[in-house]
Amino acid sequence: MPVNDPVGDMLTRLRNASRARHDKVVIPHSKLKVEIVKVLKDEGYIGDFTIHELAPQSEISVQLKYGPDRSPAITGIHRVSKPGLRRYVAVREIPQVLGGMGISILSTSRGILVDTEARKQKVGGELLCKVY
């Protein structure tokens, strides 16, 4: 069955696997998803990821990260801009998530950036999701 919102599907898979305390989750591959996963890894929300080149559809295998008491590193992950209603923000309108304790991921003209990096580079864009 085709998925109308591939990024939303990826975020839902991450959220569900994290809540179910799985060690890893497998996501269908796309360049945008790889960039989002790189940002999540750089910010410390996931452990590591590998790309598996398979015949019909490549996959991304993501290792989830947990605290010492097995509490998930990703407490919440929400899609903001959806295919039916895109959300674009200027650099001054980029929201802070939980007073700076979480991150916003943006698709900008300079690539996929986290909110702090977008503010440094003074660039706005499409607000993809919020992670905390």
Q: State Rg.
A: 15 Å
Report, as a whole number of angstroms, the end-to-end distance: 30 Å
Which structural class best describes the helix and strand composition? alpha+beta
The quaternary state of the protein chains shown equals single chain
CATH topology of the largest domain: Ribosomal Protein S8, Chain: A, domain 1
CATH class bucket of the largest domain: Alpha Beta
CATH A-level architecture of the largest domain: 2-Layer Sandwich
The fraction of residues in strands falls at 25-35%
**What does the largest sheet look like?**
5 strands, antiparallel
Mean pLDDT: 93
Helix content: 10-25%
Low confidence ranges: none
Overall 3D shape? globular
Number of strands: 8
In the residues, how many domains can be counted? 2
Provide a compact summary of the structure:
The protein is α+β, with helices and mostly antiparallel strands. The chain is built from three helices and eight strands, in the order αβαββββββαβ. 24% of the residues lie in helices and 30% in strands.
What are the key terms here?
132 residues; alpha+beta; single chain; 5-stranded antiparallel β-sheet; 2 domains; Dna Ligase, domain 1; 3-stranded antiparallel β-sheet; globular; Ribosomal Protein S8, Chain: A, domain 1; 8 strands
Can you describe what's shown?
The protein has helices spanning about 5-20, 30-40, 115-120; strands at about 25-30, 45-50, 60-65, 75-80, 90, 105-110, 110-115, 125-130. It is of the alpha+beta class. It has two domains: about 5-65, Ribosomal Protein S8, Chain: A, domain 1, CATH 3.30.1370.30; about 75-130, Dna Ligase, domain 1. A hairpin with a 2-residue loop joins strand 6 and strand 7 (about 110-115). The radius of gyration is 15 Å and the shape is globular. It starts with 5 loop residues before the first helix and ends with a strand. GO terms for molecular function: rRNA binding; structural constituent of ribosome.
